[in-house]
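step=encode ok
step=design start
structure_in=
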């Protein structure tokens, strides 16, 4: 069965992405230990697994199965992360984290019972893509999602560094971006038809290229937010928020944009929507009981810096320095999206900032030792 191959490819890609996210978190821990060489290697490998290898398997998987079928399997990685993070990263699996992870996994799996089985026989053609994608409801979805993105960017700038709300905003922004797999679904089907059946005529139309651009955009733009979140917050919190938001976004886009539940009985549609609502509630349950993960000395440094400010412009500068370097990343990718040099230039910038923070921490530690002496 085609969908089984799709599930296997997507689960493998998601597992690689989860391992890459843990490597990014581990790179931050190594940086705090002043092991900058190990930190750099882990960061590069983790980013490569999330930006290159993971999306590659996603594209292959979505060529075989629908988004409504594949979306729930992201919950598998929540379980994998919950099992291995206490051992690999030394993090504490609290009761609230365990319950939230379990709820998201169970409801994501249960949503498979309500999927519309008839959609597997439907074939994506250029005519169907025009009918499905060129609708007012798609435009409304895109506008609402753009508003959601802007609200989260505002929250990132206004929330205190290390706060639970800021961590949720980073994870939800990255996860919801990565979860918009409707572009990947359509582009992957057209690409597979062109490669296997030599049916390449749809690529002579502008719509598949717009969809492909959207797939690249969602895959790339989530990266700096994901990386910043994994560097500053524990994996047991951040991965759960990321994957939960991913599942919700994927499920909603499959429902609204791709119409993969059209024609399903009312009880299936109600059950599918109910699973999405429960997952959103589980994310709220997780966030409402999470404690700030930023060390108290960092918060004290921020407070002292804010109290010493005489002008508001300095506050704005400090906030912008801590923002995910999205524009630098997009600018580097836009130079040549098919060249590894563009990716490596952004990584070099990120590594330089890591080295700068590491050397600054080392200088502060040496200063404290001299003061104690």
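sequence_out=
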């Amino acid at each position: 069965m085609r969908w089984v191959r799709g599930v296997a490819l997507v689960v493998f890609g998601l597992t690689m992405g989860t391992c890459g996210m843990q490597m990014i978190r581990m790179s931050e821990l190594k940086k705090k230990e002043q092991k900058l060489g190990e930190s750099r290697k882990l960061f590069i490998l983790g980013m490569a697994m999330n930006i290159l290898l993971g999306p590659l398997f996603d594209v292959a998987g979505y060529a075989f199965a629908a988004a409504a079928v594949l979306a729930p399997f992201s919950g598998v990685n929540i379980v994998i992360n919950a099992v291995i993070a206490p051992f690999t990263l030394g993090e504490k699996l609290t009761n609230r984290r365990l319950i939230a992870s379990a709820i998201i996994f169970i409801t994501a799996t249960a949503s498979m019972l309500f999927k519309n089985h008839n959609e597997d026989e439907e074939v994506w053609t250029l005519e169907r893509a025009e009918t499905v994608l060129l609708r007012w409801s798609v435009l409304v979805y895109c506008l609402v999602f753009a508003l959601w993105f802007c609200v989260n960017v505002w929250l990132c700038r206004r929330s205190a560094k290390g706060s639970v709300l800021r961590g949720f905003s980073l994870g939800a922004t990255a996860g919801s971006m990565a979860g918009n797999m409707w572009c990947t679904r359509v582009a992957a089907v057209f690409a597979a038809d062109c490669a296997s059946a030599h049916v390449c005529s749809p690529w002579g139309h502008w719509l598949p290229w717009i969809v492909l651009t959207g797939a690249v955009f969602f895959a790339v733009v989530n990266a700096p937010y994901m990386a910043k979140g994994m560097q500053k917050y524990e994996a047991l919190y951040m991965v759960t928020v990321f994957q939960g938001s991913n599942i919700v976004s994927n499920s909603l886009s499959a429902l609204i944009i791709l119409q993969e539940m059209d024609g399903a009985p009312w009880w299936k549609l109600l059950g599918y929507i109910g699973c999405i609502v429960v997952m959103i509630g589980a994310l709220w349950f997780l966030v409402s009981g999470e404690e700030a993960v930023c060390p108290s000395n960092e918060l004290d440094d921020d407070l002292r810096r804010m109290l010493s400010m005489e002008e508001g412009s300095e506050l704005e500068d400090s906030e912008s320095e801590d923002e995910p370097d999205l524009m630098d990343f997009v600018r580097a990718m836009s130079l040549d999206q098919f060249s590894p040099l563009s990716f490596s230039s952004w990584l070099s910038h990120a590594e330089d900032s890591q080295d700068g923070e590491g050397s600054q921490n080392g200088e502060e530690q040496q200063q404290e030792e001299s003061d104690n002496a």
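step=design ok
step=annotate ok -> Residues 308 and 338 are 46 Å apart (CA to CA).
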